[in-house]
Amino acid sequence: MSFDRSIKIAPSILSADFANFGQEIQAIEAQGADWVHVDVMDGHFVPNLTFGPPAVKAFRPHVKTFMDVHLMIAPIDPYIEAYAEAGADMITAHVEAGPHIHRTLQAIKAQGVKAGVSLNPGTPLESIEYVLDLVDMVLIMTVNPGFGGQKFIRSGVDKTRRLRQMIGDRPIHIQIDGGVTTETAPLVAEAGADVLVAGSAVFKGGSVAKPQIYGENIRAIRTAAETART
Length: 230
Ligand code: DX5
Ligand code: ZN
Description:
This protein is α/β, with parallel strands linked by helices. The protein has a single domain (8-229), classed as TIM Barrel (Alpha-Beta Barrel), CATH 3.20.20.70. Helix content is 33%, strand content 18%. It is built from eight helices and eight strands; from the N terminus they run βαβαβαβαββαβαβαα.
């Protein structure tokens, strides 16, 4: 996949129908999703539990675009190989999840998949300064991770702007995750983000029987973000 800074919408399947992931993934891709965002939670790093490697492996054949696996787990290192083998195109690790983020990112790259590093809302940008050259993406959390449908934390906008400056002309994506809507997408797009994760704002009102609603939601977020950039 070639690098560009165009706006990409990555629906989080945390907001999909858990009894019907295959069709949900097909529906969001048919309706314009650029990436598919998979939120992995362990009930320890975050207070919720979601998908082990066998679940991610079951999603894989349905994803024709790009499967972005957001690990909210601690420890991370013992599970990197399993999530890579399950078919992740990118694995994102939280800087807060352990003392050795540099080693973790090296281990992700060693699996031949793209590597992302994520920052919780309370974590300063300086914590990733010395790993920037190891990553394909930085994920700025704009909610405290664990649940969909939370309110956007606005300090993420300034953090995004400063990160965009830190990155300069390096080919590193900036992803925003949490509370992305048609109201908040323009703020982060203007500040320099290019990959927008959205759970509730994409899935609200739609279903596999009414997939055109997903399309309307995706287009509305994309248009709001692109308009803010021009
Ligand atoms: C939060 C997850 C998000 C979440 C986003 O812990 O990482 O990906 O699903 O959901 P919304 O868009 O509803 O805030
Ligand atoms: Zn996420």
